[in-house]
Amino acid sequence: MSSRPAEIDRTLAALADPYRRRAVELLSERPRAAGELARALELSPPAMSRHLRTLRESGLVEETHPEFDARVRIYALRREPMTHLLRWLEEAERMWSEQLAAFKRHVEGGPQ
What we know:
Residues 1-100 form the HTH arsR-type domain. The chain has a single domain, classed as Winged helix-like DNA-binding domain superfamily/Winged helix DNA-binding domain (Arc Repressor Mutant, subunit A). It has a 3-stranded antiparallel β-sheet. 67% of the residues lie in helices and 9% in strands. Helix 1 runs antiparallel to helix 4, helix 1 crosses helix 5 (79-108) and helix 3 crosses helix 4. By secondary structure, the protein is mostly helical.
């Protein structure tokens, strides 16, 4: 169905966790520091770090450091993985719509 199954698998695996989904929602508003995300999600810094590492490894987020403090990590969303996922979902919806339309025609006795 999709030409990028490994990327979609990584994206879906990263989004399987509710904390990571909430982090993505927060990052969709604007880039944020790791500490700010941890506070918003009520997670310890080590737990947030593990979630951010998963999001970074999946390609959903990118990490930068401000010039004034290399200890601070700022996270921002990358659009590409979500674009690939959206295309995959559109393809799946199209396939299911066609299958359901064919089933409806079959049940109603119309032309196949």
